[in-house]
């Protein structure tokens, strides 16, 4: 459901709070039967063709560019947006897109679809295409919330102009900002809303249970080969990126009767911007959007620009709360996971967001917490994950609620199966007291290390496209 904003002409009407809120209002879909789901997944690319076939992070010129070019055989076409030297950095096909994250992570932003059955088919096609392209290039793709063994310095930077501005600004706001950009991956999903009142109710509920979802999908215990004791290091990293634009939003937990689009607009207006984009150039600009609306921006050549809707849309894409509001509700709290679990993320959220009874039951799991307790639960979820008895109990209950919601929605495939089938593997795993992070720990123990054999074992177990790395022969005894 995401797209690169387009710029508007000088005759566009000036912005104000009401027009920005109206933009969200116009996205309402009163007919709930038309509500769709768009799913996005990021993954790390690893080149296997180097010395000892050691899995190493991909570079743009040698690995990412040929991968993007390879998608063209399947009908994907480059978008108008280009890299700093005119490079291909995004592709589109039939309402879906493939884009690059700052460290070469590849993201599929799926087409908005009516059912999770359709989403599963879309991702199956994507994996097959990616696998066909990657095998000749000796590239494997790994789903993990945090890069399990690469250092920050080993990650190659991508030629996307906006990322250069972010790399300069964000480290002034949080110590882990560069790790977020270069070494994290997520799977997230986007959902429609019928009205302002429903948007407020869903926004509060989703913000409340997001930490539990983080624990369920936790898949990043390792950093530079060491287990740092977190189930989701990705979530830990996001907690120290930029307090202005990240985390849980206190006003989300107010009575939904007091919610309005203008409340979210007011929060977004008060967040400093990264940049102003004109004619493909990203000009650093770190005043708030409210100040930009009032005063405009003068670029280095002396040309004055005033804010337009494309600026606003771009600004919203640079805000990173756990639940983000655009012309849809975006849920952002999960680590990237492999093909066995990826469709469970949109299925879980569809179960509680698109069934009123399930949504109410999900909110009751966390309704009695104050804001400090919500932040404490979020930390418990990211650190201990399912190994926490309290979090495990909440996760089991949330999955059961989501299943009930999906079954009531009763969207069946050609074989007569409910969308709740996409929760089966995840429920079984959580029932055993495990998340994907525990599966990763079981593969390599407590220390992945920098050892080539351990890296290869990890990638063999958790890659989902491209060739499987062969472990190098052990060193002979002296």
- Report the mean per-residue pLDDT as an integer: 93
| Residue share in β-strands | 5-15%
The name CATH uses for the topology is Creatine Kinase, Chain A, domain 2
- Which shape, going by the Cα principal axes? globular
The tally of helices reads 17
> Spans with pLDDT under 50 lasting ≥5 residues?
1-7
What is the gyration radius calculated from CA atoms? 22 Å
Give the distance, in angstroms, between the N- and C-terminal Cα atoms: 58 Å
Structural class: alpha+beta
Could you give the count of β-strands? 19
Based on the structure given, which CATH architecture is correct? 2-Layer Sandwich
Characterize the main sheet: 11 strands, antiparallel
Question: What is the class in the CATH system?
Answer: Alpha Beta
Helix content: 25-40%
> Domains counted in the coordinates: how many?
1
């Amino acid at each position: 459901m995401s797209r690169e904003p387009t710029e508007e002409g000088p005759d566009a009407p000036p912005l104000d709070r009401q027009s920005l809120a109206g933009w969200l209002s116009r996205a309402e879909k009163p007919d709930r039967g038309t509500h769709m789901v768009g799913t996005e997944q990021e993954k790390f690319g690893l080149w296997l063709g180097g010395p000892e076939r050691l899995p190493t992070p991909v570079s743009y010129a040698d690995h990412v560019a040929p991968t993007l070019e390879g998608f063209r055989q399947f009908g994907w076409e480059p978008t108008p947006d280009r890299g700093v030297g005119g490079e291909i950095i995004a592709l589109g096909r039939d309402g879906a897109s493939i884009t690059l994250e700052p460290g070469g992570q590849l993201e599929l932003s799926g087409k908005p679809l009516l059912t999770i059955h359709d989403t599963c088919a879309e991702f199956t096609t994507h994996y097959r295409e990616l696998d066909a392209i990657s095998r000749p290039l000796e590239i494997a793709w790994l789903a993990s919330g945090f890069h399990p063994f690469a250092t920050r310095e080993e990650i190659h930077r991508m030629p996307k102009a906006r990322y250069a501005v972010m790399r300069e600004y964000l480290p002034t706001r949080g110590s882990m900002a560069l790790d977020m950009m270069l070494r994290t991956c997520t799977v997230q999903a986007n959902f429609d809303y019928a009205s302002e009142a429903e948007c407020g109710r869903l926004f509060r509920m989703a913000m409340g249970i997001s930490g539990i979802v983080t624990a369920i999908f936790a898949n990043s215990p390792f950093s530079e080969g060491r287990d740092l004791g977190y189930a989701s290091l990705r979530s830990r990293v996001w907690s120290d990126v930029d307090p202005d634009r990240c985390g849980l939003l206190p006003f989300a937990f107010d009575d939904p009767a007091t919610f309005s689009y203008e409340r979210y607009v007011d929060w977004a207006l008060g967040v400093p911007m990264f940049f102003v984009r004109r004619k493909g150039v990203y000009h650093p600009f770190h005043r708030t959007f409210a100040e930009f609306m009032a005063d405009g921006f003068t670029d280095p050549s002396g040309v004055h620009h005033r804010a337009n809707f494309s600026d606003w849309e771009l600004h919203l894409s640079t805000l990173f709360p756990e639940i983000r509001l655009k012309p849809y509700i975006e849920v952002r709290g999960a680590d990237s996971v492999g093909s066995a679990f990826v469709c469970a993320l949109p299925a879980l959220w569809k179960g509680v967001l698109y069934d009123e009874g399930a949504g109410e039951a999900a909110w009751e799991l966390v309704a009695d917490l104050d804001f400090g307790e919500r932040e404490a639960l979020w930390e418990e979820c990211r650190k201990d994950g399912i190994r926490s008895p309290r979090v495990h109990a909440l996760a089991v209950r949330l999955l059961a609620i989501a299943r009930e919601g999906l079954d009531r929605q009763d969207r069946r495939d050609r074989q007569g199966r409910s969308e709740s089938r996409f929760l089966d593997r995840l429920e079984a795993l959580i029932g055993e007291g495990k998340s994907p992070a525990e599966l990763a720990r079981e593969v390599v123990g407590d220390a992945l290390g920098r050892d080539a054999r351990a890296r290869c074992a990890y990638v063999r177990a958790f890659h989902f496209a491209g060739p499987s790395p062969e472990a190098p022969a052990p060193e002979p005894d002296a």
